[in-house]
Every structure is written in C-alpha cells, then in structure tokens.
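Q: Convert this sequence to structure tokens.
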Amino acid sequence: MRVSTQLNYAGDIRAAADQVVALESAGLDLVWVAEAYGFDAVSLLGYLAARTSKVELGSGILPIYSRTPTLLAQTAAGLDYVSGGRFVLGLGASGPQVIEGWHGVPYVEPVGRTREIVDICRRVWRREVLTNEGAYPIPLPTGQGTGLAKPLKLITHPLRERIPIWVASLGPKNVEMTAQVADGWLPILFVPERADRVWGEALRRGRAGRDPSLGPLEIGAGGLVAIGDDVQGVRDLSRPMVALYVGGMGARGRNFYNDLARRYGFEREAELIQDLYLEGKKKDAADAVPDELLEGISLVGPAGYVKERIAAYKEAGVTVLNMTPVGPDPAAIVEQVKEWAQ
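A:
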C-alpha cells in the first residue's frame, strides 16, 4: 500500500502546508485537500505544488455541483501542469446541506452527473472538440442563451491526457458507478472487516463492467494512526467528527453517513446519535458513538496491533492507506507505517 494523509483544511493552512513538506520527506505518497465551505481547495493545492516536489496532490474532494464539468477539467489540467504531473482529481457529490445551503444549487442526480463529468473531463484532456448531451448540454442548444454557442476544445496541451480521477461515494449505485468508471474510490468511515457486507456487491457489479484500460480500481481509506501501549484514548479524537457526520450531516431520512452506520450494524446507535445531535446535544452525541465503530475506523494501539490493522485494510482491498498521524513526531509515524504497509 501507498500512504496518504488528509490535510487539515479548517485550521492554519500555511502550517498545514509546512507539515506536508515534512511528511513528504518522510515518504508520504499523496496528500488530499478537501473543500467544504472554508477556503477553496484549488488555491491550497497550487500552493502545495510550489512547496513540494514528489508527493502527489489530490483534491479530496471537489464537489461536482460547485463548478462546471469543463472548469473541473481545466482546473485539473492546470494543477497537473504546475505540479509536474502529480495531481489526482478527487470528485464527490458532497451532500444537500452544503450544495443547496452554501452553493445554492439543487442537489439532483448525483450518480448520473458524476459519471457524465468523468467522461467530459477525459475528453477535454484528450483535446476533443467537445459536445455533450444529458445533464450538461455542451454547447448550449439552439434556443438557449444568445444562440452564439459553438463546440470548442482545450486551447492548451495538458501534461497528461489521463489524469487519475477518484470518486468519493457511499451509496450502492454510486459505488457501482465509481468501480466502473473511476481510477480510484474514496470511501469514508471505512471499517475493513465490515466493508464487504456494505459495499461488496456494488463493487463487484461495477468491476464487472469496468473498462480494462483503466487498470485495477484503487481504494483509499484509513483513519487515525497512533502507535504505543498507552494511546487507546487517541480514538476518542474521532468522536466529534463521527457524530457530526452520522448525526448532523443531513436531515432525518436523508443522511448518507447515518445510513452507512446502520448498514454496518449500528442501527440503534445511529438513531441515538442523530437524535442527540439534532437536539443540539453534540457532546452527548459524540459520547454515544460506539467504541467498536471508532476502533474499526482507526489504527491505534501497540505496534503489533497497528500492523494487524494495516493487514486488515490490505485484505479489504485498500491500496492507499489514508492516515492521520497523531503523536509528537508525525513524520516518524509516517515512516513507520510506510515500512509496514509495503
């Protein structure tokens, strides 16, 4: 397995970039930069391209509704060029709360739109004269706009015409689509021992229709990493995040992360976390996150135990271990995990 990490986009981004430079020296293979409703990810990715020389730089993720498909393709080509071919385009639908509440765009047809965007991006990078039908009509049909639209192709020549595309997806239909058309898959709250029961059938269906030229599907998943005999309490650092996603990312009946926890077998706990969170009792919601779930999504414990967790992720098909190192020397943790992940 290769080793990646998720940049802390909500804090001091200059300090976060300094840490990426240090982790690159320790052997980090890839860093993901998220975009929610703080600073945009593209600015930071460009900054990181100038500050680093070897580590791959991934958008993890750019929401598909916040930009046109062609702008996503242009942005990816630009970041790939300035980084010397080190960019990975991570895409995702995000959720109704952010897309409709922040961007003011209807959250509709996420699976079909993602598939269409992946196809458009690859055609843009091949410098095809672009036309498209479907959710994104390109050029605009006669009768819409000024009537002056005409098909165009990318002016500049991309460094690579096959920039890797990874998709963050959770639901069965979205995961099936991801396995069929994307280079990589970015699940969240990934419990390797329970992954097959939740996503196995969707992955198998998607892989059955996969274009062989794409190669094997990569999977990036992981969690907090702390190594030692007295680090079990580190898992609790994930409680607020899990409570936010399972309890607060969406409404009742429309929370993808809550659905995921239920599919893992935590039906009662998922309901309780959501009830507490939506009542404003965020600490109680965090306390209600089951220890078993926290253990499943992390790699925290003595060296032998962490090695076992790495093996479990490998067994579940993970090719990129996405880790958050916790300890006084994050670079040393990256070095150690990278050695064990070989």
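The two ends are 6 Å apart (CA to CA).
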